[in-house]
Amino acid sequence: MAAAATTPDILTALMSRIAVGDREALRQLYDATSAKLFGVCLRILSDREESEDVLQDVYVTIWRRADRFDATRASVMTWLSTIARNRSIDRLRARGPMAYAEQVDELEIADGADSAETLLSAADDRNKLHGCLSELDERTEKVIRTAFFEGVTYEALAKRMDAPLGTVKSWIRRGLAKLKGCLQA
Amino acid sequence: MSEAPDLSEAEAFAAEHALGVLNARERAEAEGRMAREPAFAADVEAWRERLAPMANAVVGVSPPHDMWRRIERSLPANDNGVVQTRVRFWRNSAMGGFSLAAASLAAVGVLLAQPPTVVTKMQPSPQGQMLNASIISTTDKDRTVPLFVASYDPDRKAIIVTSLLPEGANPQKVQELWLIAGKDHPRPLGFLEPGKSKVIPVEVDMAGKIAAGAALAVSLEAPGGSTDPNGPQGPVVGAGELSKL
Predict the structure, then answer these.
(1) Mutation target among A176, A180, A184 for the B interface, most CBs of B within 10 A
(2) Nearest CB to B48; choose among A27, A82, A182
(3) Total number of domains constituting chain B
(4) DSSP B181-194
(5) Which residues of B touch A135 (CB under 8 A)?
(6) Burial of A41 (0-12, 13-18, 19+ CB in 10 A)
(7) What is the pLDDT of residues A131-165, one digit of tens each?
(8) Do B49 and A78 lie within an 8 Å CB cutoff?
(9) What is the pLDDT of residue A124?
(10) Out of B1, B21, B50, whose CB is closest to A172?
């Protein structure tokens, strides 16, 4: 992967070409981002075949919706990974209630902090978020990570943790407020 | 970490949506608010940016080698992005002088009812290869504005046509799609609906004639379509040659 060719500006330029139907631009975007997005799908779904189906769907979605991407509101990588995450979570939810049977404590939470290869110059942002998450109390950090990677609703989290809904909600809301303060600092 | 001020109710809801903890009903509510309230949408985007580094921190894994081919095969008609943008532009455009309806259908009265001349260099399409055509207005001298875009999928034996005309345009007439292959008379393929996409299955004997170099044309006909076995009765409003991707 050519790190120099995957700067945010280049990705943004590719998006505007995709928006007017340039297949070659989609191909280039695919080359630059597919490993990362496939990683996101695999992380959420833990199933190779399903992740391949979702990844295919993700790039077709990117192709169809590229004209809605607004570079003033979101970075390309965030926009792409949001699509990959949402599609994977949709798939996870479609598996049914069994998907939520796991207990939070048994979840293995890999943060990929040892990843040598980082796409884009996102390493600083990532380290900062990682640092801020680790400043939260352990339970809140776990709940936020679990929610992010599994799209687990408040209701399901409360059931898993055997805690009242309102309590789980206030943990997360307080955690998010702290996170915001920490990221701004 | 020191105590942070609580998030406002609106921002907390935006953050919860970005995080993904809302249930289906709340998610729908959040999506609705994003569409109506720019400030709320901006909050959600900002929270997505804040949380995205979690996803970006996931270790990349190379997808299988044939993945790009799978994606490419499942892309809709080749200039789909253009189609979406243009349809929206035209629908939103109040500029009558440049609107598609004025540029094409209103001008139809002065068109000659003559099928376009088409170069006929027939090549059988290899199995599985999509063919595409932009059906351009016959009055468009610059040949830049397609009225329809079409793809032929040999695997499904079907033509997928998207009409870029405004919905409900010219309700007194129907738009009939024609295949012009070789020296044959134009053969009717089916009817199109303004502003809609349509999948038109192609009969086996006709499918054999669809190849790069053949052309698609659209004529305006009275309801029921042309009754002439040799081709269109009404004016031909657009035509385009099929080519490989």
Answers:
(1) A176
(2) A82
(3) 2
(4) -TTSPPEEEEEE-T
(5) 1
(6) buried
(7) 899 889 888 898 899 889 887 889 989 998 899 99
(8) yes
(9) 66
(10) B21
Q: Domain check: are B147 and B234 in the same one? A: yes
Q: Which of A61, A95, A129 is the last residue of a domain?
A: A95
Question: Which of A43, A89, A176 lies nearest to residue B58, judging by beta carbons?
Answer: A43
**Residue tagged 């597919």 (tokens):** A34
Q: Tell whether the model's pLDDT for residue B4 goes beyond 50.
A: yes
B79-115 pLDDT tens trace = 444 444 433 433 333 333 334 443 344 333 333 333 4
Report the SS3 class of residue A129.
helix
CA A90, A94, A96, A101 dihedral sign is negative
Q: Are B72 and A23 in contact (CB under 8 A)?
A: yes
Would residue A114 count as lying in a domain? Answer: no
CB contact under 8 A, A154 and B21: yes
If asked whether residues B98 and B13 sit together in one domain, one would say no
CA distance A117 to chain B (A): 8
Q: What is the CATH number of the domain that holds B200?
A: 2.60.40
B92 part of a folded domain: yes
Handedness of CA A146, A150, A154, A159 (dihedral sign): negative
Let me know whether B93 and B203 are in one domain.
yes
ipTM given for this complex? 0.77
Nearest to A51 by CA among A11, A79, A91, A9: A91
Residue A21 to residue B64, Cβ atoms within 8 A: no
**CB of A160 within 8 Å of any CB in chain B?**
no
In a domain, A113, yes or no: no
Structural domain contains residue A153? yes
Q: Residue B40 sits in which domain range?
A: 9-56
Q: What percent of chain B has pLDDT over 70?
A: 74
Is residue A112, in this structure, part of any structural domain at all? no
Residues of B in Cβ contact (< 8 Å) with A63: 75-76, 80-81
